[in-house]
Amino acid sequence: MPSERALNFLIFGKYSLQYIHHEISLTFPGNGWISGQMQEILRSTGHQHTVSYVRIENREAVLSEITRVEPTHVINTAGARGNPNMDWCETHKQETIRSNIIGAANLADCCFLKGLHLTHFGSGCIYDYDKSHPWGGPGYTEEDEPNFTKSFYSYTKVTSEKILRHYPNVLILRVRNPIAADLHPKNMIVKLSQYEKIVNVPNSGSILPSLLPGALLLAENNETGVYNFANPGTFTHNEIMELLKKHVWPSLSWSNFSEEQRKILQAPRSNLKMDVTKLEKKLHQYGYDLPSSHEAMEEAFKKVKQLQEARG
C-alpha cells in the first residue's frame, strides 16, 4: 500500500517550450514533459514536491538543492533526448554525455550519499529485434543484456543504466515510445503526425497516463532495481496514426517507409518488444493493474480529443 505519511519529492527536469502544430499554438511553460505529468499526479496526493532548475551534472548545485529541500524522495526526468529527435545527439555528443551519463550518475551518487530513494526515468531504446527476440516472439526482460548501441542516444542510455544498476537506492524505469493525453512535442503521437512517411513495425510503448501513477506507487514503497516501464502488448505506428485520425485529426494522411528510412536518419532506430511481467506483478501487489497498450491509447486519444474540443 502507498505510504500513509506525506512524502517530500524533489524533481529534476524542467524547461519551457512554445509549439505550433496543425494550426494550434500551445505553450508549455517551465516544465519538462514527464516532470509536468508527475507534478499533476503529486498534486492529487498529500505529498509535497519541489521542481529544481539545476543541471544534474552540477554536483555542488544538486547537493545544495537536496540540503535546501530536504526531500524524502528524488525523481529524475532530466536527460538529453534530442530536439526534434535523437539525431541531435549524434552532433551534440558532449552535451548528451553530460546529461545522460555524468548527470545521471552524479544524481544517483548524491542521493546514495544522502540516503535518498531515486526514481530515474531511463530508456527502453537499448534493444533491437534479433533471432532470439523476433517479431511476435518473446520480449526483452530486465535481465537481458542490451544489444542496441547504434545511435549515440542509445549508447549513453546503455552506459548510464550499467552504472546506475550498482546503486541500491535507485529505481530505473525504462520508458519506450512515450504517449500522453496531450499535444506536447515530446509526445510520440505529435512527432509521428509531422512525418509524411513512417515505419510500420510492432513496438512496445509507454502510455504515460496509465503508467505514471504506478511510478509513484513504486517510489512511495521504495522499490528499487530495473523495470520495463511499458504497457502490455505492442502496437505499430500505423495503429497510432489510425487512432489519431479517428479521434483528433480526421484529415491526417501518411505512407510507409520500406528501406529508404535509413537514408534520411543520422542514426538507426531500435524496434523491440519489452516483457513487462515484472512490472505487472509488482504493481498488482499494490492493487494497481495496467491496461493493455491499445486500451490505454484509446483512453489517451479520447482525452486529446476533449482537449481539442475545449480549445474550440
Automatic annotation (TrEMBL):
It comes from the Eukaryota. GO terms for cellular component: methionine adenosyltransferase complex. Transmembrane segments: none annotated. One of its GO terms (molecular function) is methionine adenosyltransferase regulator activity. GO terms for biological process: S-adenosylmethionine biosynthetic process. Pfam families: Epimerase (PF01370). InterPro entries: dTDP_dehydrorham_reduct, Epimerase_deHydtase, NAD(P)-bd_dom_sf. Residues 50-179 form the NAD-dependent epimerase/dehydratase domain. This is NAD(P)-binding protein. It comes from Aspergillus sclerotiicarbonarius (strain CBS 121057 / IBT 28362). The lineage of its organism: Eukaryota, Fungi, Dikarya, Ascomycota, Pezizomycotina.
